[in-house]
């Protein structure tokens, strides 16, 4: 009797889990992946909040004429304090003095740039934007390389300001470390070379038009980031894959969509005849419904779909028996 119950349970699982024989939608998705091999992200205004709004708030709170910081950044050519700071040619203390003097001349009043630099490295600026982090996880689950290409600076302690999980990126290129800054073509080429991809194999996201144009001129596909959700949708269209709903493990998903990863992994390895050394199961939720969730699974070079339906009393009983039979 117990054997029959186990067989019925296995049959039910097999009916919910099937190999993707590449229907038309999946053909388009994986064809897109073969074209694009990497996604390159700017940091400010893409992965973390934009400093533009921060500058406006700073100017308002310190009675500084609006637009002062922007004018100081844009004037003086390549030798102005801001650009030298981004290329790592001057440290934080020298920057505060030089850029503060430049801003004060423009504003006609003292500008406490030290306070602005402190705001630039604290509070909301230290919190990555969730919608982009999810997109990165989804892209990586499909085998795409990811990189950061940012105009960045050294803090007072000598470390670059980089409030990101480094493990999410294959390559991180910072202007202050390289002595080059966007839109200089050389820093784009440097990033591409470290990724090991050609320009036409990469998608680049930045919130500044001049940086986007520079990438396009090099042959890259680029997205100017404004509204984050809109930009992610545009990236989805380019890559041909969904960029939300990534579930790397049972603890990261809402309770209603958690998956028994240990049991699922054991079942897949047995059903697909995979060794214990096979790649971990990568999971991406395709439909967020709590009652009827659909997942894309990747393991051992195989792509599968799993449908998880809301538990009925019978399903709960069967699941309990399945769990009990493994102990």
State the CATH class of the largest domain. Alpha Beta
**Structural class by sheet pairing and helices:** alpha/beta
CATH superfamily of the largest domain: HAD superfamily/HAD-like
Radius of gyration: 25 Å
Unreliably modeled segments: 13-34, 249-257, 315-327
For the largest beta-sheet, the strand count, sense and barrel status come to: 5 strands, parallel
Looking at how many chains there are and whether they match, the oligomeric state comes to: single chain
Tally of DSSP β-strands: 9
Number of helices: 14
Percent range of helical residues: 40-55%
* Residue share in β-strands: 5-15%
| Coarse morphology | elongated
Number of domains: 2
Give the topology string: H per helix, E per strand: HEHEHHHHHHEEHHEHEHHEEEH
What key phrases describe this protein's structure?
327 residues; alpha/beta; Rossmann fold; 2 domains; four-stranded antiparallel sheet; 14 helices; 9 strands; elongated
């Amino acid at each position: 009797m117990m054997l029959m119950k186990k067989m019925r349970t296995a049959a039910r699982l097999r009916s919910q889990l099937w190999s993707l024989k590449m229907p038309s939608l999946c053909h388009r998705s994986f064809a897109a992946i073969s074209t694009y091999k990497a996604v390159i992200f700017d940091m400010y205004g893409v992965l973390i909040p934009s400093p533009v709004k921060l500058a406006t708030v700073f100017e308002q709170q310190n009675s500084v004429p609006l637009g002062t910081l922007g004018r100081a950044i844009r004037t003086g050519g390549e030798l102005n304090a801001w650009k030298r700071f981004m290329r790592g040619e001057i440290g934080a203390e020298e920057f505060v003095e030089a850029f503060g003097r430049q801003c004060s001349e423009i504003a006609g009043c003292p500008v406490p740039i030290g306070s602005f630099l402190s705001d630039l490295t604290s509070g909301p600026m230290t919190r990555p934007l969730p919608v982009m982090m999810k997109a990165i996880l989804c892209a990586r689950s499909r085998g795409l390389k990811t990189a950061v290409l940012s105009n960045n600076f050294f803090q007072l302690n000598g470390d670059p300001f980089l409030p990101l999980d480094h493990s999410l990126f294959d390559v991180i290129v910072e202007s202050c470390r390289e002595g080059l800054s966007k839109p200089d073509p050389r820093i784009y080429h440097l990033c591409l070379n470290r990724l090991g991809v050609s320009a036409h194999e990469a998608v680049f996201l930045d919130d500044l038009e001049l940086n986007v144009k520079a990438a396009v001129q090099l042959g890259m596909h680029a997205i100017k980031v404004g509204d984050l959700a809109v930009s992610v949708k545009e990236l989805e269209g380019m890559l041909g894959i969904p960029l939300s709903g990534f579930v790397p493990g049972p603890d990261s998903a809402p309770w209603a969509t958690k998956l028994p990863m240990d049991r699922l992994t054991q079942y897949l390895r047995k059903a697909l005849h995979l060794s214990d050394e096979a790649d971990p199961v990568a999971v991406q939720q395709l439909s967020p419904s709590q009652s009827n969730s659909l997942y894309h699974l990747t393991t051992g070079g195989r792509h599968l779909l799993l449908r998880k339906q809301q538990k009925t009393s019978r399903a709960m009983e069967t699941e309990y028996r399945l769990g009990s039979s493994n102990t």
